[in-house]
Design brief:
By secondary structure, the protein is an alpha+beta fold. Helix content is 40%, strand content 20%. A hairpin with a 7-residue loop joins β1 and β2.
């Protein structure tokens, strides 16, 4: 929270950017970012990189299925006090459920899927669910077999997922891996805990599945990218801030005005509490890849699938995209106006690029200090 509060301020360091047009000569100071993954201001660049990487991996001429696995509200409260344990259980239950249906519906073939954990609602309340992006097909004996109509039956998915998750919660509690404090302290009583699990089990469990059909599957990656590199709220949704309150906009999910945008005012302390409750544990990964999209085998299997579909050759661009500069990402994503001079419209050069242009070569890297300065300039760019 401390790093986020000083993001893009003088505290993080100042860099002087200069217009590429020497006749213009416009200069402006830009403050360095905090690079914290919970900061919504710093999320744009890594989000665009991630989206470009995933769009490059889309299987051509294949519908994608967007599945959502949601746990009831009672379990979301338990998850908020036991983030690492319950979130890991949630992801494992979704994985094992999909793999169980893979065995029974794909004749022993291998599907590929990506899971993204999402923990908040538009009002920043606890709402734990997992998004799954699944290509409509599977590999069997290194041959690609498409699935066009539907993926797996929804009711059967929901039933298996519910059984696995409730059983996993009981197991975690029996091993003493769950902690209950404050309003949940009564769950330390085994009888009350068992009753809460039973009530949650009998509630309706929401499992949603939707195919892209004729639509562009890249929209799924664009949709998921909005959840990958941010926490709880975008800064552009904050409407008003004063000494006591924060007002922000949210999308309503009530039946009579579903989808309408409304405004909510919260005391500053409550706003910060809600925001901080969704910051992930240290080094916790919210994105997981499985099947033929797994990190160790993805390049091999996607190249095989692309060759069989004979649409185009698969090119593993991920490393190139990851190492691209801010300006290249802006150009690839169509957001070049961010890097333009406000006076003449030319490109703004980073300190690294200004030095290179003036000196005719890269800055020296012989000393430890020079190497440190160079890395800082690259990060800023």
């Amino acid at each position: 929270m401390g790093r986020i509060s000083v993001c893009r301020t003088e505290y993080m360091g100042t860099y002087i950017y200069q217009c590429e047009n020497e006749k213009c000569g416009h200069k402006e100071a830009r403050y360095a970012s905090c690079k914290n993954r919970a900061c919504s201001v710093c999320s744009w660049l890594p989000r665009e990189k991630w989206k470009l990487q995933r769009q490059n991996d889309l299987v051509p001429n294949t519908p994608y299925f967007h599945n959502v696995f949601t746990i009831p509200h009672e379990f979301s409260q338990i998850a908020s006090q036991n983030q690492r344990a319950v979130q890991t259980l949630l992801l494992k239950c979704v994985e094992s459920t999909l793999k169980a249906f893979e065995k029974s519906h794909c004749r022993g073939g291998k599907i590929g899927f990506m899971l993204v954990l999402h923990t908040w609602s538009t009002r920043m309340l606890n709402h734990y669910h997992v998004h799954a992006a699944i290509p409509g097909g599977y590999l069997l004996n290194d041959r690609w077999h498409p699935m066009h109509e539907y993926l797996f039956p929804i009711r059967a998915l929901a039933s298996m997922f519910k059984n696995k998750f409730c059983s996993g919660l009981r197991d975690l509690n029996r091993k003493g891996k769950l902690i209950f404090d404050g309003t949940l302290s009564e769950l330390n009583d085994p009888g009350v805990f068992s009753k809460t699990i039973d009530e949650g089990y009998n509630n309706k469990w929401y499992v949603h599945s939707e195919a892209t059909k004729g639509n562009d599957p890249s929209k799924i990656m664009g949709y998921l990218a909005n959840y990958v590199y941010k926490t709880a709220i975008d800064h552009n949704r904050i409407e008003r801030i004063d000494e006591k309150e924060v007002e922000f906009s949210y999308r309503s999910h009530e039946e009579h005005d579903k989808g309408a945008w409304k405004r909510l005012s919260l005391p500053a302390q409550e706003f910060l509490r809600r925001f901080a409750s969704h910051i992930q544990p240290h080094r916790y990964t919210r994105i997981r890849y499985y099947g033929f999209l797994g990190g160790g085998v993805k390049k091999k299997y996607l190249a095989l699938i692309f060759a069989q579909l004979a649409v185009k050759e698969y090119e593993a661009k991920n490393r190139k995209i990851h190492l691209s500069s801010c300006e290249e990402i802006q150009e690839m994503s169509g957001r070049m106006e961010v890097a333009k001079c406000p006076c003449c419209g030319a490109r703004m050069l980073s300190p690294w690029e200004v030095y290179k242009r003036n000196a005719g070569h890269d800055p020296p890297t012989t000393s430890a200090n020079a190497q440190h300065d160079q890395s800082q300039l690259k990060v800023c760019a």
